[in-house]
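Hi F.,

I've been meaning to write this up properly since the lab meeting, where we talked about keeping a consistent format for the predictions we share between groups. The idea is simple: the sequence comes first, exactly as it goes in, then the structure tokens exactly as they come out, then a line or two of notes. No screenshots and no reformatting. I'm using this chain as the first example so we have something concrete to point to.
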Amino acid sequence: MPTRVVLCASPDGLAQLQYALITSGAALEIEVATDGMRAVEACARTRPDIVVTEVAMEGLSGAELIRRMVASAAGTKVICWASELSPPQVAELLEAGASGFVGKDEGAETVFRAMRTANAGSVAFGPGVAGVVAAGIREQAARTSELENTLAEISEQLQSLTTAKADFLANVSHDFEPPSPSPRASPTS
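Output, unedited:
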């Protein structure tokens, strides 16, 4: 049984992807779309196993495109094919339901690998996207460490101020104790 694939890309990108898939010799049924709305319609109509889509499409793009594709064809694995993706974009697209990310410059074999990996149920990253995500994770780890250190310093300062306040209040309350009642003077006659 052939794997049903929807390709969603600009005309130039579409020709490149379609040629690579057709010449691969794999058993594929390929549907194509050149804008986001047509891609969602193609997903609803054909219920593909895999979608390979550019992230920035006309009409509908980004996370909303991915959400609609996944909603219109449950079980479909969506591979994002992009020139550039930042770690926050990857996170947003993962949340929307993407199953893989491949750079446009990473070649057809990387797209095939991502398709196989996603079809097997894992998240697929091309080498370039994996490097970007790893750099983002390192950056977040450094920021987290920096914030933890700052929080520790602030906690120490707060503890010091709390101790100083307690000492001050103890001294103030000691200094302002009400005077002891003095013995009554006896009236003199």
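Notes:
The beta strands are 3-8, 28-33, 50-54, 77-82, 100-103, 124-125.
The helical segments are 11-22, 36-46, 62-72, 87-96, 107-119, 127-175.

If this format works for you, I'll send the rest the same way.

G.
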